[in-house]
């Protein structure tokens, strides 16, 4: 994404982007020497306002506008409003770049991503996804018109001046793509697990925010010390691994535990996880996790 953004724009162009974009988008923006305007996360009214500002500037500079957002926001699991942003193309002249790292392979009737989910595949001018999520590999891809891809082939600094993906990973990615296409049952299994997990956790009284994807955040009350003990407790005493997000990504008294089920999990795994989380919630509600940092070396 860093190199894609860098290659697509010059100093006359203006970038309009979602304020909660992933670090790789932010890093690409840092390389941009022209103007950039953030819109409030998923706020279409504000996005339109930024498009108006960008249009005014490009009318003078002669540049273009690039709008960037994500298909699935990887922290909270909410979806970028791709349909609403695409609809703005009727009023404003821009190209639309979507980072669908978490949506590719999981979202849409055929796993083609969040743009398929919203029925706007043709409106996305440049589509990016990584092989590191649904493909369980490493690397990524960018898709666009032949003309844009040909341009990117010769202008992506990350590809020209660095080692490209090893052949073993490339062949592995092609095989995984075939599996995603030929075995929709894996995606269906994933969603069976996702629905069961999210329903189970909600029924247990846990707050999952606004997720609409397999990314399953669980918001709890607590500081950094309690969150450390929570994940330690989960991992050591319940054998549940999950990542944790703490301040400054979330407010100081909020802990976000992030679960991502896979097609390889079973419904028994889901039940077990929900039970573990019920117990963690009970401990949080009873303020059982010490407020002082524990000595994990003992
Ligand atoms: C939206 C988004 N873009 C890009 C990436 C980076 O992917 P990779 O780990 O393949 O570099 C991630 C991974 O967390 C992501 O969530």
Characterise the protein shown here.
This protein has helices spanning about 1-10, 25-30, 45-60, 80-85, 115, 145-155, 155-160, 165-180, 185-205, 225-240, 265-285; strands at about 15-20, 35-40, 65-70, 95-100, 125-130, 140-145, 215-220, 245, 255-260. The protein is α/β, with parallel strands linked by helices and about 300 residues long. Strands 2-1-3-4-5-6 form a 6-stranded mixed β-sheet. It has a 3-stranded antiparallel β-sheet with strand order 7-9-8, covered by helices on one side. It is globular and about 60 Å long. The model has no long low-confidence stretch (mean pLDDT about 95). Pyridoxal-5'-phosphate binds near residues 24, 74 and 101. Pyridoxal-5'-phosphate binds near residues 22, 99, 101 and 140.
């Amino acid at each position: 994404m860093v190199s894609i953004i860098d290659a697509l724009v010059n100093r006359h162009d203006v970038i309009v982007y979602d304020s909660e974009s992933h670090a790789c988008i932010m890093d690409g923006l840092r390389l941009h020497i022209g103007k950039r305007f953030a819109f409030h996360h998923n706020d279409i009214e504000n996005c339109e306002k930024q498009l108006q500002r960008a249009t005014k500037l490009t009318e003078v500079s002669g540049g273009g506008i690039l709008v960037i957002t994500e298909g699935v926001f990887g922290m909270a699991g909410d979806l970028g409003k791709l349909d609403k942003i695409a609809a703005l193309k009727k009023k404003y002249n821009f190209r639309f770049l979507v980072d669908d790292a978490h949506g590719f392979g999981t979202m849409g009737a055929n796993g083609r991503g969040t743009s398929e989910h919203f029925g706007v595949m043709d409106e996305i001018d440049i589509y990016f996804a990584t092989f590191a999520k649904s493909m369980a590999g490493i690397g990524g891809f960018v898709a666009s018109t032949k003309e844009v891809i040909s341009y990117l082939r010769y202008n992506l600094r990350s590809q020209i001046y660095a080692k490209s993906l090893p052949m073993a990973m490339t062949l592995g990615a092609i095989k995984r793509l075939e599996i995603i296409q030929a075995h929709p049952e894996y995606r269906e299994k994933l969603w069976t697990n996702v629905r069961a997990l999210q329903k189970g956790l909600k029924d247990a009284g846990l707050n999952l925010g606004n997720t609409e994807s397999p990314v399953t955040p669980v918001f709890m009350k607590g500081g950094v010390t309690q969150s450390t003990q929570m994940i330690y407790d989960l991992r050591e005493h319940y054998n549940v691994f999950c990542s944790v997000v703490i301040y400054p990504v979330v407010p100081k008294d909020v802990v976000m535990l992030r679960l991502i089920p896979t097609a390889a999990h079973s419904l028994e795994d889901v039940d077990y996880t929900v039970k573990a989380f019920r117990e963690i919630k009970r401990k949080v509600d009873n303020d059982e996790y010490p407020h002082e940092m524990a000595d994990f070396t003992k």
